[in-house]
Design a protein that fits this description.
about 200 residues; mainly alpha; DNA-binding; transcription regulation; TetR/AcrR family transcriptional regulator
Length: about 200
């Protein structure tokens, strides 16, 4: 009698996590954040509710982790390290490359709908808003700040510049234009933001 191999619990857990991620992102797009529930995510993913609560404490935790995972998957498919800012020694080129990748994500329906849902709900749900900032926004902003500090050390940015204010010169206009849909976003637009931020508006 041939002995069957024992089930791979790790592989089963990964399949369940992936199904939960996909279910959570799909539901927040279809139903909106307020109507998305842990029960609904579990049913859509084909798992028990207790499975979700074993790994996460709330639907917000599920959605934020699912969104982070989506970003990592897309980055690797595109061939670059997720959630990173390169340091080639050319600050303008590095910033333009990252912002171009950001534009590609923001106009991708897989990202746009859940990102808008989470951003909008974060304005009215204080707890979700704090988690949204802490888990999604702050880590990315810190990457920009670190790249600007490296540029300061290399003499490419004035030593008196506050990196956290400096990064707002190109990150904030992009976020505002995308959220408010005041105009299309494109690679040309973010390239221009970097040029304006680094070289100013005065004649040189």
């Amino acid at each position: 009698m041939v002995k069957k191999p024992a089930p791979d619990a790790t592989r089963r857990s990964q399949r369940s996590r992936r199904a939960i991620y996909e279910a959570a992102l799909a539901l927040v797009v279809e139903e909106g954040y307020p109507r998305t529930t842990v029960e609904g995510i579990a049913a859509r993913a084909g798992v028990g509710k207790q499975t979700i609560y074993r790994w996460w404490s709330s639907k917000a935790d599920v959605l934020l982790e699912a969104f982070l995972d989506l970003g990592e998957q897309a980055a690797r498919q595109a061939g670059y390290e997720p959630y990173s800012v390169p340091d080639t020694g050319d600050l303008a080129a590095d910033l333009k490359a990252v912002l171009r990748a950001t534009v590609d994500e923001l106009v991708d329906p897989r990202f746009e709908a859940p990102w808008r849902a989470l951003a909008a709900e974060g304005l009215v749900d204080e707890q979700l808003g704090r988690e949204f900032v802490a888990k999604l926004l702050e880590p990315q902003l810190d990457l920009y700040a670190r790249r600007l500090r490296a540029a300061q050390a290399a003499g490419a940015v004035r030593p008196d510049v506050d990196p956290r204010i400096g990064l707002e010169l190109f990150v904030s206009p992009l976020a505002q234009r995308w959220l408010q849909r005041t105009a299309p976003i494109s690679h040309a637009y973010t390239d221009t933001l970097v040029d304006y931020a680094l070289y100013g508006l005065a004649p040189r």
